[in-house]
Amino acid sequence: MGGGAPMDLIAVGRDVLARGKRFPGDLEVFVEQSETTSIKAYQGEVESLVTGAPRGLGVRYVEGSRWGYAYTGDFSRAALDLVVSMAVSNTAVSDSDEFVKLPEAPDAYSEVPGLWRSALLETPLEKKIHLALEAERVALASPHIETVEESSYVDHASRVAILSSRGVEVYGEQTFCYVYLSAHARRGDEVQTGLGFNTGREPGELDASAAGREAARKAADLLGARPCPTGRYTVVLDREAAAAVIGVAAQALSADAVQKGRSLFAGRVGQRIAADSFTLVDDGLHLDGMETAPFDDEGVPRGVTPLVEKGILSGFLHDTYTAAREGEGARSTGNARRGGYRVSPGVLPSNLVLTQGEGTLDELAARVGSGVYIVGITGLHSGANPVTGEFSVGAYGHMIEGGAIGSPVREITIASDLVSLLTNVSDSAGDARWIPFHGSVLTPSLAIFDVTVAGS
Known about the structure:
Number of domains: 3
Radius of gyration: 24 Å
Strand content: 35-45%
Distance between the termini: 56 Å
Largest sheet: 7 strands, antiparallel
CATH topology of the largest domain: PmbA/TldD fold
Helix content: 10-25%
CATH superfamily of the largest domain: PmbA/TldD superfamily
Structural class: alpha+beta
CATH class of the largest domain: Alpha Beta
Mean pLDDT: 96
Number of helices: 11
Shape: globular
């Protein structure tokens, strides 16, 4: 890419497979060509602007119970011969593992229209810069906003081909972009922070002004916050906070985590782990998802995988390896993901989608009556453990008083465990939104009863 025509990635993959025919094992080629833009604005100026057009391929070779991996960004004949030879050679230093295998070619893939928008690459850089600057400008024009720490525009256009000697041959492309900013509101010596964002598949779908207003409103609304009395409350998690909780749960819903003894859900398929109203699926084909594609990073078709159905644990996310290790007819759920061509695939969610309830956030607050509305969570990485289920994190938000969202609170701690949080989900709004900060999560605001909140 980089302003020129895209490479024929399928042709490159076929070339690599042809070079691997002299070896007795199975060969897989993952070919990637991307274009990225990252812009940061500060005080009305462009603070940083980074563009890139990375391309490369990774080769996975499997012979018997051993496998090797190698990658290159050089597509010359000599480099392609070398990367195949290196992948083959690397099997000699790998551990023997009877479950190592490449997936078979599928019968078909689902059609997922609209994932690629040429407008993302055709949009002038000046317009992308304007989105970052406009979000900052709108936020700074709002009452009480003193500074905007970071106002950013980010986009990614990716083309991928996956081919293997097992018959897989597939090509896909997608675009995605977002704008986000963190605004700081000041009153005297007090400073509060609010986050705003927009997502889309092309810049024309982004509303930078709305993101700026959102960040400013959230920050200003928190001015005057103080700890609430310690007690047990019904907690309403805003969508960003709910996505954080779901993201922790998703780590424990990976078959890889289960098989390594790192999941609190191990051995609990068919058991209740959440409330009747809680249904969570991994939907790799959702038209609006940020991780949507017809296939995963092994070329296995994506689909909809039930994880929790009406509170009952249905199963786990698999790639080809974990399915083989599971045995008993287990199959990949199409959840092999890579961080790029330099690494081999592992199990990760695609789009996590939680069933929503009814009404607006205000209507949910009215149904709750009294409690604490959590806008944001802090200390997630150290305070939430998907292995033990322990959950103790910092939080901030507002009191819910008389059925309305009221005075702001900060410096509070939510203390519980993951299963209790999920089991005590009592209600949800109909305000589901895609949250990009904990994977790709579509979630509404959630009400959870009997949660310990430590404050003053």
